[in-house]
Write a structure and sequence with these properties.
The complex is a heterodimer of chains A (about 110) and B (about 150). In chain A, helix 1 packs across helix 3 and helix 3 runs antiparallel to helix 4. Chain A is an all-alpha fold and about 110 residues long. Chain A is about 85% helix and about 0% strand. Chain A has a single domain, classed as 3 helical TM bundles of succinate and fumarate reductases. Chain A starts with a helix and ends with a helix. The longest helix of chain A is centred in the middle third of the chain and has 29 residues. Helices cover about 65% and strands about 0% of the residues of chain B. The radius of gyration of chain B is 23 Å and the shape is elongated. With about 150 residues, chain B is mainly alpha-helical. Chain B starts with 19 loop residues before the first helix and ends in a 19-residue tail after the last helix. The chains are: A mainly alpha (about 110), B mainly alpha (about 150). Chains A and B meet through helix 1, helix 2, helix 3 and helix 4 of A and helix 1, helix 2, helix 3 and helix 4 of B.
Chain lengths: ~110, ~150
């Protein structure tokens, strides 16, 4: 139930980011200056944490999506759906533990 | 007066030759698997390797789109993600917007936004000029001056 709610919430959040992200990337057609100025706002610490949240949402949505596919197509999927949710949570923690230090160094490290 | 169906009468349901909802259901799963590959690849090259988001500027994008593989990658990602996301939000609108009028307005806005974003994104990928005339040379990829 909660994995279903989280799948919807993360899906909507990712969708709205996608709309904005296509618009900001479209500025490469305006001028290099316009693009660099807007992409520069992605490099401040607040946006750095926002990117961490975005990646967290994407990784959950991806892993839980695979779980949904297994529940639907794998004969034993429905039986193991609860176990698979914990596998999703475990893999999510693992992947985020790998990504977060990299992202924090990029965000707060001195370049 | 409201007519109530006989008890145990067969439920009437509109059926059609093609089942659009089932095609959508299959599409969400097939595109989802492809999007995992496309988006994880996108995140690794743009957020993790070589300084992450700090390395991204006009020259970075131009360098990537000089390679056909990244043009195809980004185009496929744009289309699949937009159709996947639009279909997902459509489902959510159908579930939570109770009035028919509200659903119509929200879904019209959704489809309009989706078409605008897909057309805009596609045009940007196909009409992109990595060396726009008059731009400062230090903002451009190195192959522009070569």
């Amino acid at each position: 139930m909660w994995s279903w709610v989280a799948h919807r919430v993360t899906g909507v959040a990712i969708f709205f980011f996608l709309l904005v992200h296509v618009l900001d990337t479209a500025l490469v057609r305006v001028s290099p200056q316009a693009y660099n100025e807007v992409i520069g706002t992605y490099k401040n610490p607040v946006m750095g944490l926002g990117e961490a949240g975005l990646v967290a949402a994407i990784v959950f949505h991806a892993l839980n999506g695979l779980r949904i596919i297994l529940v639907d197509f794998w004969a034993k999927g429905p039986k193991y759906q609860r176990v698979m949710l914990w596998v999703v949570v475990g893999l999510w923690v693992l992947l985020m533990a790998g990504f977060l230090p990299v992202q924090l160094v990029h965000t707060f490290g001195s370049h | 007066m409201t007519t109530i169906a006989e008890p145990r009468s067969r439920a009437t349901r509109k059926t059609s030759r093609t089942n659009a909802e089932m095609i959508g259901w299959i599409f969400m799963r097939a595109s989802g698997v492809l999007l995992i590959v496309l988006i994880f690849g996108h995140l690794i090259t743009n957020l993790i390797t070589d300084g992450g988001v700090h390395a991204i500027d006009f020259g970075f994008v131009a360098g990537k789109w000089a390679q056909p593989i990244w043009q195809v990658w980004d185009l496929l990602m744009l289309w699949l993600a937009m159709v996947h996301g639009t279909n997902g939000v459509r489902t959510i609108i159908n579930d939570y917007a109770e009035r028919a009028g509200t659903r119509l307005v929200l879904k019209s806005l959704l489809y309009l936004a989706a078409v605008v974003i897909v057309v805009l994104g596609t045009l940007v990928i196909f009409t992109f000029n990595p060396c726009p005339p008059g731009a400062p040379a230090d903002l451009l990829p190195s192959f522009c001056t070569a």
